[in-house]
Amino acid sequence: DQHGNIEIPTFGTMNVLGYTTDEIEELIKQRLLEEQFKETANIFVTVKLTGLTYTASGEIGSPGTNTIYKQRVNIFEAIANSGEIPVTGDISDVMVIRQYPQGQQIHHLDLTDVQVMESPYYYLQPNDMIYVKPRKQKSWGFGVTGKETLTTLITVASLLTTTILLIDRL
Predict the structure, then answer these.
(1) Are 20 and 44 part of one and the same domain?
(2) 68 and 123 housed in the same domain
(3) Same domain, yes or no: 62 and 113
(4) For the chain, what is the mean pLDDT?
(5) Which of 33, 48, 63 is the last residue of a domain?
(6) For a Cys staple, 59 with which of 4, 64, 89, 94, CB 3.0–4.6 Å?
(7) For 9-112, where are the E strands, in sequence order?
(8) In this predicted structure, what is the pLDDT of residue 74?
(9) How many CB atoms lie within 10 A of CB 11?
(10) pLDDT 10s digits, 21-32
(11) Do residue 59 and residue 71 come from a single domain?
């Protein structure tokens, strides 16, 4: 559920918030060995997700909560599923907000760096949030790209120069 609880027959409810599927398999094996079987028993446990739900917001094509029906989803697949990042989004500082038993933590990813694939936050976990910040140019209101910002500044400068020259001639 949304709080990280799973229901297992004969065990009851187990909280697995913040664990990977491999870690959950080990937790269930340990609990089975402690409560149901001898320690020498060979137990096979398989944990699968019914779908990975995440939320994307900020400068992204289609913000909102999405579900992808795969076991492992990386940050690029999630962003592509959410409508890509427009030119107004800052791909050098994408935040992944992850739920842990002790609360939320924010992790920063630079999607322009190939080393992002080595990050422990490259693969999403259930209920992760992805936030894409706007570029600084968009925040300033001067344009989306460096070229648009330069064009806007040149236009403002020429307007001021023209105004000053007209006032001076009067």
Answers:
(1) yes
(2) yes
(3) yes
(4) 87
(5) 48
(6) 89
(7) 12-15, 52-58, 64-68, 89-100, 103-109
(8) 96
(9) 13
(10) 889 999 988 888
(11) yes
Q: What is the CATH number of the domain that holds 56?
A: 3.10.560.10
**β-strand 89-100 against 64-68: which pairing, if any?**
unpaired
- CA-based torsion, 123, 125, 126, 129: positive or negative: negative
- What is the rounded distance in angstroms from the CA atom of residue 53 to the CA atom of residue 153? 43
- Do 126 and 146 belong together in one domain? no
What would you measure as the largest C-alpha separation in the chain, in angstroms? 100
Residue 136 has pLDDT above 80, yes or no: no
For residues 76-104, average pLDDT: 93
Total domains, the chain = 3
> CA-to-CA distance for 122 and 111, rounded, in angstroms?
10
Give just the sign of the alpha carbon dihedral 107, 108, 110, 115.
negative
Q: How distant, in Å, are the alpha carbons of 53, 149, 170 from that of 85?
A: 19, 20, 50
Residue 103: count other Cβ atoms within 10 Å of its Cβ. Answer: 6
Q: Which amino acid belongs to residue 108?
A: H
Q: Which domain holds residue 36?
A: 1-48
Strand, helix or coil for residue 35? helix
